[in-house]
Structures
1.
Amino acid sequence: MSVDLDFLSSLDDGLISTDLLRRSGVDPRGIECLIGLSELVRLRRGWYVTATEWKAAGRDGRYRFMIRATNASSPKSLVAAHLSAAAMHRLPTIGNWPSELHTFDPRASGGSTSRLITTHRSGPPAETVVIDGIEVVALERTLVDVAVNECPERAVTAIDAALRRDAVRYATDLRQRGEGEARLVRPALTTDTLLCELDNVAPPFHRARAESVIRFADARAGSPGESLSRVRMRQGRFVIPDLQVRFPDILGSYAEVDFYLEGIRKAQEFDGKVKYTRGAIVKEGDDPGEIVWLEKQREDALRRQEAVESFDRWTWDMVLPLKKFCRFLQEKGMPELRAGAAHARSAG
């Protein structure tokens, strides 16, 4: 059997249909053979992706493939919503993505669920955009839907990422256009934007929780792990540190720490990824040992700062279990909110 799967994959951004395979000379038996040889992965009935694409896609990309394949398999056009829309908007999540496609259809007689599709109908009609060839609920509405319907861990992570990404987009657009054309730049997504959208949706349930989540979100959070860490601190009633605090004169440049409590001079970092000073450039193929050494030098330099009395680190396996993370913070002397105290963002 001779078929150029990479070429077929390029025709529809990775998706390959049974019809395309047949027109390329691959019969049903040949398709099963390609699957058995681990060259092809079946997404949904009639839709496939090459094993190479599947492996490279990662968890988020694989769910987007499933969304697109489910949409392509449907007899009618679907509008991706809720977590499915979040995935299409390239937002992160905590935990696994759903196994089914979540859609929005205000004309449906009621919310419904099948093995492949969950349909939501509550709320006013939603603005949509087209991403990767399918219709998707617009970003603001998607974030509000996630805030209303999902746990704080998922919701804060998604909203933090969206706020951060759009703040970067806005700053970049302003820089490129210059002050004279600032009025032409699309405003950045903000907490107020999302609160207005929440008012528009007017959910009958979980509104207070959604508003609390939206107000807690912060564009300064640098990663999903940092977002989850903040949620865990809030759930454990710890004082919320300041974010992305910069320290000058670190190895000839400067360094930022994920969290900082000025009142007790405590620096903290989530270690889901290696961090470096902005002056250091680590290229692909560099020695991992050298990378670890650079990070150790950075941490040692931070510890020598008068403003840093203690330095804490944690990883995914520590922050995912709430009780374990709370015990860790208590052992490290993290200040807790007093009973009845207003929620604070800094110990300083």
2.
Amino acid sequence: METNTKKYPFAFKITVVTSFVVMVAVNAFANILPFNGISTGEVSDSYPNLFAPAGITFSIWGVIYLLLALYSLYQFGIFQKKAVLDTPLYNKTGTFFVISSIANAAWIFAWHYKALALSLVLMLIILVSLASINTILIKADLTVKDKIFIKLPFSIYFGWITVATIANVTAFLVDIGWERFGLSEIFWTIAIILTGLLIGGFTAYINRDIPYALVLIWAYAGIIIKHVSDTGFNLSYPSVIITVTVAITLFIVDIVYIIIKMRKI
């Protein structure tokens, strides 16, 4: 990534870090207190559906927060020799990151107080912000360190939010009592899984983004765990399990194809 003689504004760096800290703090206190007397996971459980993954799947947030913390520190010149960075690139990614962080913190309140329509709008804001960041990074000339401390955090975050958006839509439909046009819940769950496969697989391929695809595999593996677990659905929906297994297989094929394409470049 080519550097600029004009320094990335220090005040904006602080804004980026502050928005990150606020996001993490709100998410933490939402479960410590908890907000509205209910944890984030318990809110999810109150909208039962066949797409929701096992609780262990959400541990990926620890990885996301760690990587975003490294991104926040990287802009100060940590992990590199100097803090003079590509101002246009950092202004654009930083702006969208601040927007996504504020929306993330606001989402927690909407979710805990079961304002599902508002939570969906906020989730879409996060999704669009991360999609915008990834579009910017794809077009940028990144160094190896840039790919580790900028591209990787947002690839993983974007991958998880892609699945989270689908889950949020599903919870919203449960909340409004959607009748699925008279079709079975199994049918619509399979349709949702395949929709995630198409969107995620296409996005990973177009962006040549292996970490993004790996996150989708992790999320879909969580769905399988929920369905085969004794504390979950206990193998009650074999067609859903088969569909998710096929989806994971195709994600792996997608990754292999991306690797082959990248080697030819």
3.
Amino acid sequence: MKNLKIEYVHDIDCSWCPINYANLKTAIKALNDEVSVEIEFLPYEVKPNFKVEGEKISTHLMKLNGWNEQQHAEYRESLLRTAAQAGVKIDFSKRTHYYNTSLGHRLVHFASLSNKQAAMNELLIEGYFEKGLNPTKVDQLLELAARLDLDLGEAKQALTAQFQEPALVEKYQRARQITTRGVPALRINGKQVVIGTRPPEYFIDLLRNIET
């Protein structure tokens, strides 16, 4: 059995992060008898200067990429097709905005202290992409903490503290060591870096053949 440690760099509202993560999980499941994998989530904020109200997704992408409405529609269709292939649900009737995601990352880190970071990541994916959760809203994030039976007083303190915990700051720094080109990205056993979204077959081959 091969033991692997994967540092997974993601942002809460990045469309491709849950798709890539789903493909990675598919590969790990396929190699269940060959590899044992530990995943640590590292925070990366694509839009750190966004305010609480965020920005409409279509407006942001069209402005950022210089797209017209047709080009944006084609991108969205391609995204939804790729997401469906990975088993990821995105409901754009509810998921309408990009937001500042710093509090969402605080919540994932807080959950990691109870070994529940993967479960929290799943709840954030479901909440944001399927139900339109706003990750700047403390009350909405506390509802997720409650679903995992986390201490709500401690969770609120973590979300509302003036400064980030040193351990979370270190995670941000490590994420930037892995990628400055955006997310998703990951690093395996502190060595092999993969940036961008890959299919399950890619990860199966990589995890099976990587040297430890």
